[in-house]
Every structure is written in structure tokens, then in C-alpha cells.
Automatic annotation (TrEMBL):
Keyword presence, Signal: yes
One Pfam family of this chain: Neprosin
Entry keyword annotation includes Signal: yes
Signal peptide stretch: 1-29
Protein name: Neprosin PEP catalytic domain-containing protein
PROSITE patterns per record: NEPROSIN_PEP_CD
Transmembrane spans: none
Keywords from the named record: Signal
Top-level taxon of origin: Eukaryota
Domain Neprosin PEP catalytic: 161-419
Length: 419
């Protein structure tokens, strides 16, 4: 009898204990931003983005590269790509575009794309390398919804509305009566110093702002972005949006949309070699070409003379599915003015353009694709410089046969003339 009573007491106590525990958990989930629900949401996103790997490679920079079947990549989760038939190669190329630069001296530096993870292995045919997303990558974002997206919305195109606040640009661009169908450049690669929560990019933009509030952009180049990637290495990146970054699009393969094709190139992975300041024979470059496939409207991106990285299907866009209104080249940094001053985040090599080759960062051989599908040097190039004492640009549009259209750009950020 007495024993039975003991058991009953324990039972009651146990029920009470569990009731208490469940109440506490429910309270936590309800009140705290984070906790149980957040963990579930992070796990769900990881499961969605990290596709089953055929093989995994540990890169020296700490990344894990998953070799994922080309048909199982995140792109095909996009609702607009439900019935998309993957294309393995472009069906059209722009005409001309003979690279003067390939024939002259800097070509010796135009090594094939090298990414740090290549030191640890390669992905088999039929798969593509994808940088695995870790829980901490998502937790570094301002929110789970914000992961992989830009924290700073681009202002309406800068020729008529200079960036206010967070972005600072030093770029050249074309914005003519004609529409554009591609762009190209040889981009000098560096490792600028960047504050957490900010980034420094050197890139090509193609944009269509016929509907300004929903500006469509395609962007690619290199960037240092500690909040996004968790370190300060220089990485190849791609970006797209169909609505000025409001809800659609993202960097790399951090959402569905961009179709990656090459077994050797992972968007979002670190690149090497980088340029060495003060050494003219140690200037590294990446050559990027983006163009519209005139047969089906997809936008392709190629690295160097032969490596097709992948494409943005035409179906992703409302305006870029037709054409681009602007092609732009150069640098952008985020300046959060954390101490009420300009940031120390550097652009380009972190040195002003006046220092020239070997010290200042450059773009060379900039080209556009015109409405006759020809790759040509751009005319009527304009500049967009927000604070020349912080980050500047020194354009030279002469068709110097050695460089074609080129410019130096960049800067150190905060200094006595850039408070
Ligand atoms: C990146 O560089 C900044 C500025 O030099 C430094 O404060 C930060 O600790 C570095 N971050 C990482 C993850 O290495
Ligand atoms: C400049 O770079 C070249 C090529 O990487 C290298 O061989 C040379 O030693 C470097 N010179 C100096 C002064 O560091
Ligand atoms: C360019 O794109 C716009 C949509 O942004 C479209 O209305 C227009 O017809 C296109 N122009 C040409 C020449 O294709």
C-alpha cells in the first residue's frame, strides 16, 4: 500500500515536471528571437540548400566543397524553373571580341581559374562543386530571411541619384539610347582589408532599370565579404535580382536560380593567385564575360577564354529577359560609418589610381555587346564617383592596343582628406 502511494507520487511529480518543461520551452520560443523555432528554420534552410554530395572536399580555407549531381543543384527548386531543361553550353556567342589583351604581355598572367579547394581534390564529371553552407554562415546574417541577400539595397541608378549613406562607388558605365546584351573585362585581383558587416567588390554589373523600383541586375566579379563568407579571403561571386533585392535573387548558389555548370569552378569559393603590391610582374587578373544568348535569352558567364561557369535563365527576369540599360565596371564598398567616420574598408588594392600599374587596381579590355550581337569597345563612357578623396577612379578610354579601354580605381577609405 505504502509502496503504491510512493509510485503515484513520483508519477504526479513527473507529470508536473514535464508540464513545466514544455511550458518553459513554449515561452522561450514565443518570446526570444531565436531558440527552438529558429533552430528548426536554420536546419530546414540547410537541408534545402545543401544537396546530397557524391563526394566532399575539404579546402585549405576551411570550406567544404560538395560535388553535387549537376541535375540536383539548387537552381531547379526555383518555381519559374520547374520545367526548365538544363543547357550544357550556350547556343550563341557574341561576334568579334577578339581579345587584344590575350595577344600581349599581360596574357602571360592570365592563368586558368585557380581556387584554393583545387589543392585538395577535384569533382567528377557530371557534378558541380558547391560551397557547403554551415549553420554559422546563416547565423551571421542579419536574419534567416536575409541570408545570401544584400543587406544594403542599391539606390536607384547612380547617374541620377548618387549613393547616400552606406554604399560608395568608383565605377565607369555606359547608358546609351541603345540596349546592351553583354559586357566583359579583365579584372585585377586583390585582397583589400574589410571591416565586419561591410564588403569590398570589384565587379561587372548589367542592369535594366526600366522599372526602377524593380531594377533587374546581374553582377559578377570578386569580393571580400566577412559577414557572408566568415573570412577575409577574396572570392569569385555571382549575384542576381529581379526586384532590386527586395525579395528575389541572392549571391552565388545561396538561393535557387543561377545554374552552375563547370566541374572546376565553384561560385563563392576563394581564388588565387592575387596581386602583390609594388611588383609589376605579380599582377593577377580574372577575365569575365557575360552575354545574352540571342536564341533563348539566357545570360551566360564565362571565366577566361574557355571556362563557362553557368547561366541565369531568362525566365528569372522581368526586364533583363529583354535587354540591359546599363553596363558598369568598377568598385563598391559598404561604409557603415561605425565610428561616425568613413570606414577603413579598402577598395581595389587599397591604393589610389594615381599610383598606376603594379600598385593601383585596374580593369582592362572593357567591352560591351551591342544590339547587333557584336563585342565592341564602349563609347561615351561615364564615371560615378561618390567620394574621390576616399575611393577614386582614373579612367583612360583610349584604345591603347596593349590595354584597350581600361582604368585604375580604388582607395584606402578613411584618411585625412576622407574623414
Ligand atoms: C577581417 O579583417 C578585419 C579587418 O582587418 C578584422 O578585424 C577581422 O578580424 C577579420 N575577420 C576574419 C574573420 O578574419
Ligand atoms: C615579383 O613577382 C615575381 C613573380 O611572382 C617574383 O618572381 C619576384 O620574386 C617578385 N619580386 C619581388 C621583388 O618580390
Ligand atoms: C528592352 O527591354 C524593355 C523592357 O525593359 C522592352 O520593353 C523593350 O522592348 C526592349 N527593347 C528591345 C530593343 O528589345
Amino acid at each position: 500500500m505504502a509502496e503504491n502511494l510512493g509510485i503515484e507520487k513520483t508519477f504526479v511529480a513527473n507529470v508536473f515536471f514535464w508540464f513545466l518543461l514544455i511550458s518553459i520551452q513554449a515561452t522561450n520560443a514565443g518570446h526570444k528571437d531565436g531558440g527552438f523555432n529558429q533552430k528548426l528554420e536554420v536546419e530546414k534552410l540547410l537541408k534545402k540548400l545543401n544537396k546530397p554530395a557524391v563526394k566532399s572536399i575539404k579546402s585549405p580555407d576551411g570550406d567544404i566543397i560538395d560535388c553535387v549531381s549537376i541535375l540536383k543543384q539548387p537552381a531547379f527548386d526555383h518555381p519559374k524553373l520547374k520545367n526548365h531543361k538544363i543547357k550544357m553550353r550556350p547556343s550563341s556567342y557574341p561576334k568579334g571580341g577578339d581579345d587584344i589583351l590575350e595577344k600581349v604581355d599581360m596574357s602571360s598572367k592570365s592563368t586558368p581559374i585557380v581556387q584554393l579547394w583545387h589543392q585538395s581534390g577535384s569533382c567528377p564529371e557530371g557534378t558541380i562543386p558547391i560551397r557547403r553552407i554551415k549553420e554559422e554562415d546563416i547565423l551571421r546574417a542579419n536574419s534567416i530571411q536575409q541570408f545570401g541577400k544584400k543587406n544594403f539595397k542599391s539606390p536607384p541608378f547612380r547617374s541620377y541619384a548618387k549613393a547616400q549613406g552606406s554604399q560608395e562607388y568608383a565605377t565607369v558605365y555606359v547608358r546609351g539610347d541603345d540596349r546592351y546584351y553583354g559586357g566583359k573585362a579583365t579584372i585585377n585581383t586583390w585582397n583589400p582589408s574589410v571591416q565586419f558587416g561591410e564588403f569590398s567588390v570589384s565587379q561587372i554589373w548589367l542592369l535594366n532599370d526600366d522599372d526602377v523600383a524593380n531594377t533587374n541586375t546581374i553582377e559578377a566579379g570578386w569580393q571580400v565579404n566577412p559577414q557572408l563568407y566568415g573570412d577575409n579571403t577574396t572570392r569569385l561571386f555571382t549575384y542576381w535580382t529581379d526586384d532590386n533585392g527586395k525579395t528575389s535573387g541572392c549571391y552565388d548558389l545561396l538561393c535557387s536560380g543561377f545554374v552552375q555548370l563547370d566541374a572546376g569552378v565553384a561560385v563563392g569559393a576563394s581564388i588565387t593567385p592575387l596581386s602583390i603590391y609594388g611588383n609589376q610582374s605579380a599582377q593577377a587578373v580574372m577575365k569575365l564575360t557575360i552575354w545574352k544568348d540571342i536564341k533563348n535569352g539566357d545570360w551566360w558567364i564565362q571565366y577566361g577564354p574557355e571556362k563557362v561557369i553557368g547561366y541565369w535563365p531568362s525566365a528569372l527576369f522581368s526586364q533583363l529577359s529583354y535587354n540591359a540599360t546599363v553596363v558598369e565596371w568598377g568598385g563598391e564598398v559598404i561604409n557603415t560609418r561605425a565610428n561616425g567616420q568613413n570606414t577603413a574598408t579598402q577598395m581595389g588594392s587599397g591604393h589610389f589610381p594615381v599610383e598606376g600599374y603594379g600598385k593601383a587596381s585596374f580593369f582592362a579590355n572593357i567591352k560591351i555587346v551591342n544590339d547587333k550581337n557584336q563585342m565592341v569597345s564602349p563609347n561615351n563612357i561615364l564615371t560615378s564617383i561618390d567620394r574621390p578623396n576616399c575611393y577614386d577612379i582614373k579612367p583612360d578610354y583610349s584604345d591603347d592596343p596593349k590595354w584597350a579601354s581600361y582604368f585604375f580605381f580604388g582607395g584606402p577609405g578613411i584618411n585625412p582628406n576622407c574623414p
